[in-house]
Amino acid sequence: MTTLHHVRRGSGEPLLLIQGMSGHSLHWGEPFLGALEPHFDVISIDNRGTGESPRLEGPFTLAELADDAIGKLDELGIEKAHVMGISMGGMVAQELALARGELVRTLALGCTFCGGADSVATSPAVLGRLAAGMQSGDRARAVRTGWEVNVSQTMAAEGDAYERFTGIVAQRPVAVPVIMAQLQACAAHDTCARLPTLTVPTLVIHGTEDEMLPVQNGQLIASLIPGSRLEVMEGVGHLFFWERPERSAELVRAHAAVPA
Questions:
Q1: What is the pLDDT of residues 55-80, one digit of tens each?
Q2: Is the predicted pLDDT of residue 260 greater than 70, yes or no?
Q3: Predicted confidence (pLDDT) per residue in 127-140, tens digit
Q4: Which of 12, 53, 62, 65 stands 20 to 30 A from 88 (CA)?
Q5: DSSP state of 197
Q6: Using CA of residue 187, residue 51, residue 175, residue 125, what is the dihedral sign?
Q7: Residue 236 burial (CB < 10 Å; 0-12/13-18/19+)?
Q8: Is residue 90 within 8 Å of residue 113, measured between CB atoms?
Q9: Backbone phi, psi, residue 151, to 5°
Q10: Alpha-carbon gap, residue 63 to 157, rounded angstroms
Q11: pLDDT of 112 over the 90 cut
Q12: What is the rounded distance in angstroms from the CA atom of residue 179 to the CA atom of residue 133?
């Protein structure tokens, strides 16, 4: 287990936020965090090797990242929390809820994946675009490509949002070896057969223009978790909480049954 860095803000019931691949606590974006803060004690963690958490020491599994998150709750003396994970963080949140469901008040899974034969992986075309950007030696091109495949075409054209995104990337870049280790961990992820055992109230959020993990993945996850609710955001890409921060926060608040 790695002791993670975290950022804590707001007041109310605890809400643990777990970021995705190459993301950390800053990548939630101020509009989304600001909309959550009046309603929750928001705890956003930096996964191992990212942000201000300790440097990566060798490969890891997503179950180990879930243990890191559980360790953070234990460190903070939190016996039960709402948990939200997106993309890779959603995979980690699945492992956390499956391993220690008694710690989870409610579960929100955004733009994520459960593995198995019926899941839909990132297309070779999208992976090729990302690889070309990373291998170009042009950091600006790599960042721009990453932005474009993570948001809708409409959002990709918004200069202000892209400027905020690049500011976060420049402030705390995530090293390529860490991203490669995250890719390897995600490749082994498969909770498909275990999700039907979950008894935690679950919300699944996915955008229809998600190029990284197509919307069919959210639909599959919602079909596997008993009693879960699926929220599909039309015209929205992978980073739905950047494109619709107020709506995303409203969904999390309503799912947690926290008063407005």
A1: 998 999 999 999 999 999 999 999 99
A2: no
A3: 899 888 888 888 88
A4: 12
A5: G
A6: positive
A7: buried
A8: yes
A9: -130, 170
A10: 37
A11: yes
A12: 14
Give the predicted TM-score (pTM) of the model.
0.96
Structure-token pair, residue 40: 């929750």
Neighbours of 188 (CB within 10 A): 10
230-to-11, 51, 156 alpha-carbon distances in Å:
27, 31, 25
DSSP state of 174: P
Report helix, strand or coil for 82.
Answer: strand
Query: Cβ neighbours of residue 184 under 8 Å, at least 6 residues apart?
Result: 59
Quick: pLDDT tens for 179-226. Answer: 999 999 999 999 999 999 999 999 999 999 999 999 999 999 999 999
DSSP for 228-259, written as a single string: -EEEEETT--S-HHHHSHHHHHHHHHHHTT--
Tell me which amino acid residue 207 is: G
> Which residue, chain included where needed, has tokens 């400027």?
163
Residue whose C-alpha is closest to residue 72's, from 91, 100, 98, 94: 100
- Across the beta sheet with 202-207, the strand order is 6-10, 40-45, 13-18, 81-86, 104-110, 202-207, 229-233
One-letter amino acid of 210: D
CA angle 29, 86, 221 (to 5 degrees): 150
Report helix, strand or coil for 210: coil
Residue pLDDT, tens place only, 232-242: 999 999 999 99
Identify the CATH homologous superfamily for domain 6-255: Alpha/Beta hydrolase fold, catalytic domain (3.40.50.1820)
